[in-house]
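Private note to self, pasted from the team thread so I don't lose it. Backbone tokens:
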């Protein structure tokens, strides 16, 4: 069971063998630790020492996020004891041909899923541009198959993503201001929801990686870097389109989210009172001169360190605009929709039976482990049909 606690000012306390979510004298929820797989805490949530011990003793993955969903950190279960599996992961980091093949497999799955969704948009919305973008993504596949370096693979992934989001904007019944993917900060409602759902997805993939006994740090598509869950980000790629992007389209097209569910957060410095007539302008109030419009204490959410390579944020991603955020009620609707999506069943060919999307993430992490251990030669991403 996955539980989200988002009541600001709530306090989690231990009572017997279970936990209580309290605020003041009221009890909001009772958490039975034997049923709990993951606990996500948003914003100002207190946990007593005894409650923390209960979570750690029961190996419950506990994730801390800001009120608006920015990832902060986690209490994770003990590391896998399989030192030989971890050793194999790190040895394979220095095997260029293995890393290249795995990166190609991951990106091939991502490109295929993006093209499939764009073709769905073309058919349902009858917009030729989406089909054109899908065809251009499909044309990248033969080039990807011939890529001779991971850098080239990343280049095709970047090109495919740019084409994809150019076509993805046509999937919305109403114009929500989305023109391209903007991460830090998300400056329109669609980017705001995408960033939030990608964060939720990252947490589920991380949990699946740990269930599989894998080390979350050494990845092959995303370069290894200090503190970056590169493997988690690798395995996320195939699920972005399948889970987060399709859900974003549904949330807006089914009117579950409306324009009034969002607000623009302007920094205090940019909203300070106007000077009296004759007074010189306040030189510190110009947002252009601020070190950052999204400092480290901000609640603007997005994935931590998700770039495939270390380096500065590209100029085209620096918009100079203010972050767009969800209202608390809309935030709850997004969480509910995400959990409903992950409990939806579909036919999962590798298992030959019906699985939920949440279980499929766990199965895919297990398939990845088989590739690491040499039981399987090729990693097959989950494909959108």
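Design output:
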């Amino acid at each position: 069971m996955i539980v989200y606690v988002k009541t600001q000012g709530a306090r989690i306390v231990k009572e017997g063998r279970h936990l209580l979510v309290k605020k003041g004298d009221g009890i909001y929820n009772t958490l039975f630790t034997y049923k709990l797989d993951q606990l996500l805490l948003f914003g100002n949530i207190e946990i007593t020492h005894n409650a923390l011990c209960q979570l750690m003793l029961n190996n419950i993955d506990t994730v801390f996020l800001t009120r608006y969903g920015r990832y902060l950190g986690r209490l994770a279960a003990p590391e896998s004891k399989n030192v030989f599996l971890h050793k194999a992961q790190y040895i394979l980091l220095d095997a260029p041909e293995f890393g290249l093949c795995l990166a190609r497999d991951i990106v091939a799955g991502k490109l295929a899923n993006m093209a499939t969704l764009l073709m769905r948009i073309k058919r349902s919305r009858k917009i030729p541009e989406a089909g054109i973008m899908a065809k251009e993504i499909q044309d990248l596949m033969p080039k990807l198959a011939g890529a001779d370096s991971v850098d080239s693979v990343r280049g095709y992934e970047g090109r495919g993503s740019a084409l994809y989001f150019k076509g993805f904007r046509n999937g919305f019944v109403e114009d929500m201001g989305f023109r391209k993917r903007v991460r830090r900060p998300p400056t329109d409602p669609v980017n705001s929801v995408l960033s939030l759902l990608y964060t939720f997805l990252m947490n589920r993939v991380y949990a699946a990686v740990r269930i599989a006994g894998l080390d979350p740090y050494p990845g092959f598509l995303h370069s290894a870097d200090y503190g970056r869950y590169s493997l988690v980000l690798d395995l996320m790629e195939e699920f972005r389109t399948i889970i987060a992007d399709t859900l974003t389209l549904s949330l807006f097209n089914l009117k579950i989210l409306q324009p009034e569910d969002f607000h623009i957060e302007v920094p205090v410095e940019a909203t300070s009172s106007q000077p009296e007539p004759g007074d010189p302008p306040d030189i510190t109030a110009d947002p252009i001169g601020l070190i950052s419009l999204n400092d480290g204490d901000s609640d603007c959410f997005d994935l931590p360190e998700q770039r495939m390579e270390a380096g500065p944020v590209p100029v085209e991603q620096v918009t100079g605009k203010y972050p767009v955020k969800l209202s608390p009620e809309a935030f709850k609707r997004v969480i509910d929709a995400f959990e409903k999506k992950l409990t939806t069943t579909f036919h999962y060919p590798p298992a030959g039976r019906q699985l939920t999307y949440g279980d499929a993430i766990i199965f895919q992490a297990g398939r990845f482990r088989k590739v690491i251990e040499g039981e399987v030669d090729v990693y097959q991403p989950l494909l959108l049909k």
